[in-house]
Each structure stands twice: as C-alpha cells, then as structure tokens.
Amino acid sequence: MKNSILKGSLLISLAACCYGMLGTFVKMAYLDGFNTAEVTVSQFTIGFISLLFISCYKRKPVSDLGQKEYSGKSYIKMIAGGASLGLTSIFYYLAVRYISVSIGIILLVQAVWMSIVLEAFLSKKRPDGKKIVAVLIILIGTVFATDVMFQHDQLNWKGIAWGILAASSYTVTMYSSNNIGLQFPPLKRSFLMVTGGFIVVLLVFIPVLLNGFSLNIFLKWGLMVSLFGTVLPPILFTKGMPLTGMSLGAICTSLEIPVAILFAHFLLGEVVSPIQWAGVILILSAVVLINLKKKTENGI
User: Fold this and answer.
1) How many domains does the structure of the chain reveal?
2) Which is it for the CA torsion 112, 233, 7, 281, positive or negative?
3) What's CA 217's distance to the chain center, in Å?
4) 45: left (phi over 0), alpha (psi -120 to 50) or beta
5) Is 7 inside any structural domain?
6) What is the spatial distance between Cα 286 and Cα 281, in angstroms, rounded to a whole number?
7) How many CB atoms lie within 10 A of CB 289?
8) Is position 267 within any domain?
9) 119 lies in which domain range?
10) Are the C-beta atoms of 186 and 235 separated by less than 8 Å?
11) Whose CA is closest to 24, among 89, 93, 109?
C-alpha cells in the first residue's frame, strides 16, 4: 500500500510538472504569432494521433482478446469525462493571453481546494478541521500570490475569470481520472480521455478552422505543447490517481506552482514580487498541512 501511494504520488507529480512547463511554452507560441485555437487544436491533434498509435502498438495479441469486454456505455462515459481535459486547456490558454503565467498557474492550482470541496459534496461528509484550515490558507495565499491588494487596477479580470474556469475544469479532470472507467487499462483510459478533449476542442474552434488556420504551428510548437499537455499528463494521471485518491492527487499537483514560476522567470523574464512569493509559500504550506494528514492516515 505504501509503495502504491508513493508511486501514484510520483506519477501525478510528474504530470503536474508537465503542466507547469506548459504555460510558458504556450506563451512563447503566442509571442511567435499563433493564437489559442492554433495552439490547442495542434496540441490535441498530435496528442490524439500519438496515443492512437501507442494504443495500437501496445495492443494485446489475438489470443488475449475477448478476455475483457467493455460496454459502449463505458466508452461513452470515459470520452465524456475527457471533455474536461479539452476545456481545461482552452480556459488556461485563454487566461495566459491576458495574465502572466505565474498568476495563471496560481489560479489553476485552486483545483486543490476545489477538489476537497467536490469530494466533500459527493461523499456528503464535512472535511476535517485541517482541510478547512488549509483551504483558508490557500485562499489567503492566493490573494497575496496574485498581488490583488496592490495591483487590482493592473490585473486583467478577463484573464482571472478564464483562470478560475480552468481550475474548475481541472477539478473535474482529476475527478474523472480517479473515478471513471477504472476497468480500462491506463493507456486506453488516457486515449479515451484525450479523444473526449479532442472532440470538444474541434467543436469549440470549428469557426477558426474554417476561416484560417496556420499549419506552421504543428512544426514550431505543436509537438512540444502536445507532449507536455496531452500525451504525458493523461497517462500519468490515469495511472497515478487510482493509487492516491482524489485529495492526495490534488495535493501533488501543487508542484505546478514552483515549476511554472521558474520556467516563466527564466524563459519569459517574468518577475515575482516578495509578497507574491509569500503567497506561494502560504499555498505550499497549506498543501503540506493536508499532506501530513494524509501520511498519518496511511501510516507512511
């Protein structure tokens, strides 16, 4: 049990690091003249094709087929659950058009406390005292990390709104990874989730596809964004979430914060003020608080 939890935590942490790097790559694609539709469509197109190829390559021999049968309803549920994956990318990429990557990732990681609230709502059980305190610390830390008290006139509220929507969708993605289609092998679950995300992205951006789309995005940024945004994270999440549970899985995603800030600093030159770093420390402290509780519960 201990090894399973540790393995799951590592897998989700790696997925979080991928998402942490992603915002900087998307911002660089914007600076290169590409738009949200081009970045997102290229990401999910390459991701879908890559996972389809991997799934076919890893397919079991004929002698092993037929041992497990999955209903059509199970496939539909898994694909529908993956729709949130596409929405998360769309919302997050729209957010970083208007705000810095550092603030964007702070908003995205609000999925930590949103997951706690969602889990409490679905289980109809009130969170324990430590979790409630941790949520309050995260909210206070977010106020400092976004510097909303001193820079509220400079913040783009459209970007803030997209960031909150991204966090909400991200929470649903984590829930889907932890609860839907667990009978499928991890690779198949990843492919089905990305398929759902791919369908949503195509539906959202059909007008752009019909009225002009730069294929250069596939050569310049598509592969990079797809690898860290569509190929690796779903595989890591679908393997890791069932081993950790939703709360601990959400906690591990907090690694996105330092990774995103460091990448944005070194590659984009973004500056984070001392008060913002204080907010980041508060958020990470809240994560540690919940994590200590989890370790105690699991006897680690």
Assistant:
1) 1
2) negative
3) 22
4) alpha
5) yes
6) 9
7) 16
8) no
9) 2-57+75-124+156-261
10) yes
11) 93
- Entry pTM: 0.84
CB atoms within 10 A of CB 287: 23
Domain annotation covers residue 31: yes
Q: What is the pLDDT along the chain (300 residues), one digit of tens a residue?
A: 667 888 888 898 898 888 789 999 999 999 999 999 999 999 999 999 998 998 887 655 444 444 456 778 888 989 998 899 899 999 999 999 999 998 998 898 888 889 888 888 888 888 888 888 888 998 898 888 877 655 655 678 899 999 999 999 989 987 887 788 878 887 888 889 899 999 999 999 988 888 888 889 998 999 999 999 888 887 787 788 778 776 677 677 777 788 888 899 899 998 888 888 898 899 888 877 775 644 444 444
How far are the Cα atoms of 17, 106, 153, 209, 286 from residue 137, in angstroms, in the given order? 23, 13, 24, 43, 6
**What gap in Å lies between CA 55 and CA 137, rounded to an integer?**
42
Residues 280 and 262: their CA atoms lie apart, in Å, by: 12
Distances (CA, A) of 8 to 1, 186, 226, 289: 11, 13, 22, 19
3-state secondary structure the chain: CHHHHHHHHHHHHHHHHHHHHHHHHHHHHHHCCCCHHHHHHHHHHHHHHHHHHHHHHCCCCHHHCCCCCCCHHHHHHHHHHHHHHHHHHHHHHHHHHHCCHHHHHHHHCCHHHHHHHHHHHHHCCCCCHHHHHHHHHHHHHHHHHCCHHHHCCCCCHHHHHHHHHHHHHHHHHHHHHHHCCCCCCHHHHHHHHHHHHHHHHHHHCHHHHHCCCCCHHHHHHHHHHHHHHHHHHHHHHHHHHHHHCHHHHHHHHHHHHHHHHHHHHHHHCCCCCHHHHHHHHHHHHHHHHHHHHHHHHHCC
d(CA 123, CA 185): 26
Residue 223 inside a domain? The answer is yes
